[in-house]
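Field log, afternoon session.

UNIT: design team B
ACTIVITY: writing a sequence onto a fixed backbone
BACKBONE:
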């Protein structure tokens, strides 16, 4: 079975790896290098604690975490898998009550989370962190963590290539050819035509553009996000953490990754943003980690997040276009491994994993969700 995977971010890489493992003839297509886009410039937090919009979405995310553990056992964890834990604490006002309510909900669903006082967290886990004064409650998630997205992508693509997959990087898809309503080929920008039995749209924020090549209108949100890497020599923290104003995590190589929803709200576009936003992001980090004085910004990018219109993933076949599949999700870091497993099974065996059944592409129509 010949399958073209358009998009070699972490989701496309996982789909292609699982397909090649099942004996499919895989062709990776990407206009850039593997994992160099959103996969490399995202906060890369692996979790289910922030996925409580519905029980189905929570269960999918828990399965995504478990799938990463399986993947690490199979391909090795070096360089990409860091399940070192996650901390979250609230600011003033009613946010502390909201945090405690979230912890209660997660506990009732059997999730591994506990509340510690900040003093205990600082003494036993993260001595460099400056917590708010008083008995600040901190949610401690021991099984969550982060992923080196580009390293994982490289490992998965490399593994697929060893099994005979092919790759055309720096070569965008120009067209998806259908005959009698079914996908039969993809055409690349160099006008080469590649016969396929199926195509997987894993193009992230360009998912709507790739869908349009097949005649599919995929409604997506536009929500730009700014991520910075801070060079600091000795990294002062070991875990992912969500503070009231900024998110931080280790990144290896003497660096931290920084992100803030407050800063994102000031972004008009991912294509251009004032340099002052980067400095404001660094200042927020210094408020939490005073030892970062003297650190410097190592890199910064604003990206368009890959978010389908209703906020949930779009995974699986579109019945209107046989041979066309979607693998578009905002939480690609958490969900890549489980999406790869489930979609490869569906494409090769026709079996739909119950975990992804609520997220079929057919539910997303422009008449229901408005234009991109």
């Amino acid at each position: 079975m010949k399958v073209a995977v358009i998009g070699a971010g972490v989701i496309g890489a996982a789909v292609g790896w699982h397909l090649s493992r099942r004996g499919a003839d895989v062709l990776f297509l990407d206009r850039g290098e593997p994992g160099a886009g959103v996969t490399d410039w995202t906060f890369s937090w692996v979790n289910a604690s922030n996925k409580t919009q519905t029980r189905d979405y929570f269960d999918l995310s828990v399965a995504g975490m478990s799938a990463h553990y399986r993947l690490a056992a199979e391909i090795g964890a070096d360089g990409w898998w860091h399940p070192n834990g996650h901390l979250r604490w609230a600011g003033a006002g009613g946010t502390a009550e909201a945090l405690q309510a979230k912890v209660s909900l997660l506990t009732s669903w059997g999730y591994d989370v506990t509340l510690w006082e900040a003093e205990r967290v600082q003494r036993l886990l993260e001595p460099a962190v400056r917590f708010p004064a008083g008995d600040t409650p901190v949610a401690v998630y021991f099984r969550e963590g982060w992923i080196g997205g580009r390293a994982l992508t490289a490992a998965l693509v490399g593994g697929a290539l060893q099994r005979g997959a092919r790759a055309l990087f720096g070569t965008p898809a120009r067209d998806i050819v259908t005959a009698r309503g079914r996908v039969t080929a993809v055409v690349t920008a160099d006008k080469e035509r590649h016969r396929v039995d199926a195509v997987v749209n894993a193009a992230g924020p360009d998912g709507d553009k790739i869908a349009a090549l097949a005649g599919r209108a995929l409604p997506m949100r536009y929500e730009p996000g700014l991520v910075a890497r801070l060079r600091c020599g000795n990294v002062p923290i070991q875990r992912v953490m969500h503070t009231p104003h900024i998110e931080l995590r280790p990144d290896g190589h003497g660096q931290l990754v920084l992100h803030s929803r407050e800063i994102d709200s000031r972004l008009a576009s991912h294509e251009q943003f004032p340099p002052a936003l980067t400095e404001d992001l660094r200042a927020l980090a210094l408020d939490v980690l005073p030892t970062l004085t003297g650190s410097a910004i190592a890199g910064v990018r604003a990206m368009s997040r890959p978010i389908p219109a209703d906020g949930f993933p779009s995974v699986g076949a579109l019945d209107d276009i046989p041979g066309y599949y979607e693998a578009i999700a905002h939480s690609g870091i958490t969900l890549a491994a489980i999406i790869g497993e489930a979609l490869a099974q569906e494409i090769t065996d026709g079996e739909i994993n119950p975990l992804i059944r609520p997220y079929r592409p057919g539910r997303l129509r422009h008449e229901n969700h408005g234009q991109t």
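LOG NOTE: The two ends are 33 Å apart (CA to CA).
NEXT ACTIVITY: expression trials, pending approval
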